[in-house]
Each structure stands twice: as structure tokens, then as C-alpha cells.
Amino acid sequence: MALFAAALHAQDAAPTIENPPAGGTPSLRAVTVSTPRGATVPFDLPGSVDLVDRQQLRDGKLQVNLSESLGGVPGLQVQNRQNYAQDLQISVRGFGARSTFGLRGVRLYVDGIPATLPDGQGQSTNIDLGSADRVEVLRGPFSALYGNSSGGVIQVFTEDGEAPPRLGFSVAGGSFGSTRLGAKASGASGGIDYVLSASRFRTDGYRDHSAATRDIANGKLGVQLDDGSRLTLIANSVRIDAQDPLGLTQAQLEADPRAAPLATQYDTRKTVEQTQVGLLYERRIDADQDLRLMLYAGDRRTTQFQSIPPSAQASALSAGGVIDLQRRYAGFDARWTVRTALAGRPFELSTGLAYDSLHEQRRGYENFIGTGAAQQLGVQGALRRDERNEVGNVDPYVQARWDIAERWSLEAGLRQSTVRFDSDDRYQRGINGDDSGDARYRQLLPAAALRFAATRDLNLYVTGGRGFETPTLNELSYRPGNVGGLNFALQPSVNRSLEIGAKARVADGLFTAAVFQTRTDHEIVTATNSGGRATFQNAGRTQRDGVELSWLHETRNHWRTQLAYTWLDARYRDGFCSPAPCAGGNAVAPDNRIPGIAKQSFFASFGYAPPLGWRAGAELRALSRIAANDTNTASAPGYVVAALQAGYVQRWAGWEWNAFARVDNLFDRRTVGSVIVNESNARYFESAPGRNWTVGAGATYVF
Asked: Which SS3 state, helix, strand or coil, does residue 564 take?
């Protein structure tokens, strides 16, 4: 699971540069990285990895969505749909861009527990930013070592409790009736530390029919055992009730970007309840050996009302217009690490086994009752689908690092990923026969990296690897024509990636650059997408070429500058039909852009944030146009938006007080927040708000 960068940690000490150049002035905060070989700095890692610490996650933020704080990570595209029924749209180097809800193609972990299930479907709804310590984002070939659907890896870590005990409260509010209330208690005594956090978020929504409520509770308990081992218990729960405004056509977007005409007709909405627990055991066997064991289990229940017309549900093969899901999942990851020498040079080896399982009960119901004038829409009607699905993966893995010379290091890993799907159809009526079936996908995933320390302040590296992505259960769940039963005609996609990069300490800051190419066979693409329901198919070959640049500079007197630029050219290499067969101008030409991916993005921020007193900052975000369909006949326009924020922090008699105000989209630009790829009725667009504001305050008492 955590093979390349198990954890990143931003220290709260005074800003310094690790191993600063002779005569240079330290400025950047010390950042250490925990890998199988122990703590090091990201500067020495042969790959693209970025960290967003707790200050960036919370200062001047509503603390609800990852999109608030991850804009400065190159290669990462986080689109806020303004739709809490469908989650954020997150892609890494173009992987995950086709997702109409949740996360696909990107693996997400929260405190080491996979928020991506073994089929590759994930969600970010259970992340509590109020207690998060940091977020790390890994991109490039080494992501493949995390297994299925790891085009990129995002890991979120809850902060550790520290002495003395603290009790804090926060409140924030903003445009569109948005409010967030939070409370957090933390502390440490002897060998025990703890963090307990809870929050409630509510919004009327920017668009019509987009109100939502989200309640999150998050807890972490650490126990330092007498034998030098550590035991950590993690528990998390979330409940979401959200209306779904659906997408807009181009004409609807221009006439009224806040409207949701179809959504109000069908009362489209989603309810989610999830609870999970995890247990982590870490032991230092001796000075050269470590053991790490992770166990977890959870339950997630989802009910979603879609806008499928009753006429489309008339077929005996229809799966209805209401989805009722219950998912139980569990797994473990066991890893052993040893540090020794090979040919007289330092050598480290980590090996382990990951197992994940998912048991799903999927039912479908009609979204109406009655007929004619007495017909009611948006209510649960007759049963149209009943099946039990199981997915499991067994992944042994190994990774080694060898410092082959004074300036050269070699790192390599191998993972054997096996994913099994099994479906038992329990709804058989007339011509709706038995759709039971099973499939097994297996792939060997190698990755390797070579690093050269050209100078004390310049590291050069090259990495390569192979990854793969199976269809998710949701992608398998429907066959074209609104027909239920798993679509086992879908095949996994396989990709090969190569990256060349550099990391340099320049002018008391850190500059990083990466050039990469990813080629994929059997790319999984959206075939049809209507009323909130999507079907999928395999295209041919695709290619993603890209460049990522970033610059980070912090001074001792608390000024911070950050720049990030991404150029990503993602195209189909082969032509195909979307959907098949070809008819009515739906042929996709070779060299068409892959939809959902911006070719260019840019982020800039500049701010002043001392520990106490006034603080302020400004941000600029730019995104080029995004194709909305495979034929490239529709697209969301590019945009440039700016934001300003100001805050104040003060301490008095054991209390720490803070307050902030923020304005986003300062110049009131009309923008599209995200696109619904290949929406069959041309309802591609989910509009984003114009100028909007947020204010907040908090207080913490230190005992």
C-alpha cells in the first residue's frame, strides 16, 4: 500500500532548508519524508511528490473541500462540481478525468486506510480537513506500486495529539447559505495521544436544487507500547444528504447558470452513510528491521434518485431509476523492512502483502409510482434489480533501494496485482434472465528509478513503470440501452509511463520540473451518460505528454510565494465510436483530445502569515478550455480567477483566537466548475459561482 512515500511530515519548527548551500540563507521549512528506509527529504526522492500542510489546508479556508487547498500541486486537477451528491472531480495527469461521480483512476488513502475500494472506485467525502495534518500527492510511474487504478496517489493524514491538551471550536459561513461548525479536542499524556474532531457543514447551494448537509466525526488514538512498538486506532464516520442539480446544456448555461430544471422535476438526490475503523501496529524489531501491520473495515450505504424517465424504464431489462447500495469492505496490509548492505553500499528492502475485499448488495427501483395524471416522480417504486457483487484483490509487493555510488541511487519495485469480480443476479423475471458472471484481472506492475545528485543543490532522476486500471463496479453495472447486469465485456486498461525530472535549490527556494509521457492501451471511456447513469466501453490507445513546473519560497519573516504550471496534452491515438456502433456523427477521430482534461493550468499565490497578528494573501488560478465529449464538439471555456484573503491570530491567557475573511472569484467571472463527460443529452456543464465570500473565526484553549 504505502511503498514509495508512506508519509510526509511538515515540521512546525522555524523555517530552514535541509542541507542549505554554503553561504546561503535558510528559508524553506524543514520537510521530512518517511519511506521504508526511514526519514528523508522529498528533495532526495526520484519522483514527483508534493505536500500540503495543515496551515495551507486550514488558514483562511471553509475546510470542506480538497479543492480549496490543492491548487498549488502541479499535475493535479481538482474541479468543484458545486454538487455534494457527486463529490469532487479529481484527476492526476489526466487519470480520473472521466469520472462523473467520486474518484476513479486515482487512489486515495486516509490515515493509511484505502478510500479507494478494490475495484478502483473512491470518494473524498470522509476527509475531515479540520483535523488533517497534511496531504501528500504522488504522481508518475511509482504510483503504479499502489496497485489497481493508481494513476496518481493522494494520501491524507490526521494530526497526532500533542501535550498539553487542547480544546477548540470554529465557525465559518459564506455565500449561498453555507455554514460550517467544528469542534476538536487533542492531547497527549505518557504514552497515549489522541485527536477527536467533528464538524457539520450545510449549504443551500449555488445552483437550484443543490442544498446539502454533511456531518463528519474523526478520531485517532495512539498508544506507545513498552517494547518500542506503537498502536494507532482510527475511526471515522460521515453522513451526507445532498440534492443533485445535474448538468446543463450550453443554452441552459447561457440562459441561467443556476437553474436545475430536470433535477427539480425528478427530485434527484443522494444519501450516504459511512463508518470505518482501522488499526495500525508499528514495531522497530531492531536497529535494522521494522514491521508494519494495518487492518481496516467499513460500511457504506448509498441511496440515489436519478432522472431516468419512466418511459425508459418500461423495458423488462431496465434497472430502474433509484439505486440502493450497501457496501461492506475490509482489508489488511503487512510490510517488513530491512536495512543492510550490498557490495559494501547501503541497501534497503521492503516486502509485503495487501488484501482488500468488497461485498456489495445492489438493488434498483423505479423512480415513480402510478400512471397518467396520478403519476409521481422522484419516489421509490417497484423493484427492478437485485444482485450481490464481490470484489477482492491480493497484491504481494517488494521494493528495494540501493545507493550504488556516492552520487547515484537506484530504487525499484514490483507488485503482482490480482483483482477478482463475482456477481450473483437475484432478479430474474421473464426475458430478464440470469446476468450472473465473474471476471479476474491480473497484472505485474514494475517500476524503477535512477537518481543522480549532480551537485549538493541539484538532483536529477528518471523513472519508468507500468500500471493498470480495471473497470469499477459502477462502470460494469450497466450495459448500453439502460440494461442491468454487469458489463463484463469491459477490459482493464494498461499504461506505461516514463518521467524525467529535476529538483533544485535556487535563490533560497525549491524549484521542481518533470517531463513525462504515458501511453495506455484499452483506455476505459464513457460510452453513454444520461440522467445520472453512465455506461462505458474500451477505446484503443491513448497518449499523455506533459510538463510540470513548480516554485516554492518561504522567508524567515513569514512571506510565502508559490507557483505551479502544468502542460498536459492528452489525446486518443486510435479512432473509435462513442458510443458504438458508428452512426450520426459519433466517430471519434485519432488525435482528438481526451475530454475532462485541461491542456494548461497555472496557480500563483503570495502571502504574509506570521504566527501572530495580521496576515493576508492573494491567489490566481487559470485553466484552459476542457473538451466535454470524445468528438470534441463541445467544451467548457477556460478561465482566470483571483482570490483575496485576510486574517488575524492572537493569544491571550491560554487562549488562541483567529478570524479570517476571504473573497473568491474576485472579478465575478462566469465559469464552468466541471464537465460531465459524454452526457448523452448534451447536459455537459456544471456551472461555478461568480464572486463569493467566506468569513470564519475560531478559538482554542490550551490547558
From this structure: strand
Residue environment code for 590-604, b if the CB has 16+ CB neighbours within 10 A, otherwise e: eebbbbbbbbebbbb
Torsion sign over Cα 93, 97, 98, 99: positive
In angstroms, the Cα distances linking 81 to 33, 137, 369, 642 are 33, 21, 31, 18
CB atoms within 10 A of CB 249: 15
pLDDT tens for each residue of 374-430 = 899 999 999 999 999 999 999 999 999 999 999 999 999 999 999 999 999 898 888
Q: Of the candidates 184, 110, 203, which has an alpha carbon nearest to the alpha carbon of residue 154?
A: 110
346 closest CA partner among 400, 403, 410, 289: 403
Query: What is the rounded CA–CA span in Å between residue 473 and residue 294?
Result: 25
Task: Indicate the pLDDT class of residue 227, thresholds 50, 70 and 90.
Answer: confident
* Backbone φ and ψ of 66, nearest 5°: -60, -25
Residue 187 to residue 162: CA distance in whole angstroms? 5
What is the C-alpha to C-alpha distance for residues 212 and 202, in angstroms, rounded to an integer?
Answer: 6
**By the 8 A CB rule, do 17 and 27 touch?**
yes
Are residues 657 and 702 in contact, defined by beta-carbon separation less than 8 angstroms? no
Through-space distance between the first and last CA atoms of the chain, rounded to whole angstroms: 38
Q: Which residues contact 64 (CB under 8 A, 6 or more apart)?
A: 129, 180, 201, 214
Name every residue whose Cβ is closer than 8 Å to that of residue 550 and which is 6 or more positions away in sequence. Answer: 50, 72, 74, 511, 512, 513, 562, 563, 564, 565
Q: Which residues pair with 190 in a beta bridge?
A: none
C-alpha cell at position 145: 506500486
pLDDT above 80: residue 243:
yes
Decide if 260 contacts 302 (C-beta within 8 A): no
Return the closest-CA partner of residue 649 out of 617, 619, 616, 618: 616
Cell 482510527 maps to which residue?
234
- The pLDDT value given to residue 401: 93
Summarised one tens digit per residue, pLDDT across range 179-211 is 999 999 999 998 999 999 999 999 999 999 999
Q: Cell numbers 533560497 correspond to what residue?
A: 508
Q: Which three cell numbers stand for residue 502?
A: 529535476
CA atoms within 13 A on the CB side of 47: 29
Adjacent-strand bridge partners of 356: 331, 393
**Positive or negative torsion for Cα 209, 108, 486, 325:** negative
- State the DSSP string of 607-665: EE--SSEEEEEEEEEEE--EE-STT---EEPPEEEEEEEEEEEEEETTEEEEEEEEEES
Question: Is the per-residue pLDDT at 461 higher than 80?
Answer: yes
Q: Which residue has the cell 550490498?
A: 342
**Three-state DSSP class for residue 515:** strand
**CB–CB of 278/296 below 8 Å?**
yes
Are the CB atoms for 137 and 77 separated by under 8 Å? no
Strand pairing partners for 271? 241, 303
